[in-house]
Specification:
157 residues
Length: 157
């Protein structure tokens, strides 16, 4: 399935929030205010994946450049109907490239300790666990913080 990536536009927000609600359970999914705030943070960017099928937006990713040469993947959301088609990898690779171009050496992200599919996905992409944050999510669930060295990955490719 072919996907086209682009930067988000203001008119995308309602659909992006609806996708986030489908992708994550209550307590982990973002409220409208939270998602809006993350997308508007200084240094943040939102990549939108469009497909040529039934849904114009199939998924999206929010990330930000940070201090000390470290980027942050805030969320990756892919509609359940298009999962396992490589879209998550396309979004993640594009975000890592943009972070690298912005001067980030490392990238961090959080994943729920019980989200085994996400943890396996990130491991396949070269991420490793650096710490656990107790009670990270609104429902009290712990998160694992994962990291990737963008420079060593770029040199290995």
């Amino acid at each position: 399935m072919p996907f086209t990536l682009r930067d988000s536009r203001p008119g995308d927000f309602a659909q992006l929030w609806a996708i986030d609600q489908q992708c994550f359970p209550p307590g982990i999914a973002y409220s409208k205010a939270e998602l809006n705030a993350y997308m508007r943070r200084s240094g943040a960017f939102t990549l939108v994946a469009e497909d040529s099928g039934q849904t114009p937006i199939a998924g999206f990713l929010v990330a930000e450049t940070g201090r000390r040469h470290t980027g942050h993947i805030i969320t990756i959301d892919v509609l359940p109907s298009v999962r396992r088609a490589g879209l998550g990898s396309v979004l993640l690779t594009a975000a890592e490239q943009r972070l690298r171009q912005a001067g980030c050496r490392f990238v961090l992200l959080e994943a729920a300790v019980n989200n085994l599919a996400a943890l396996a996905f990130y491991k396949r992409h070269g991420y490793f666990v650096v710490r656990t944050v107790s009670g990270y999510y609104a429902d009290g669930l712990d998160a694992l913080v994962l990291q990737k060295d963008l420079l060593s990955q770029a040199q290995a490719s």
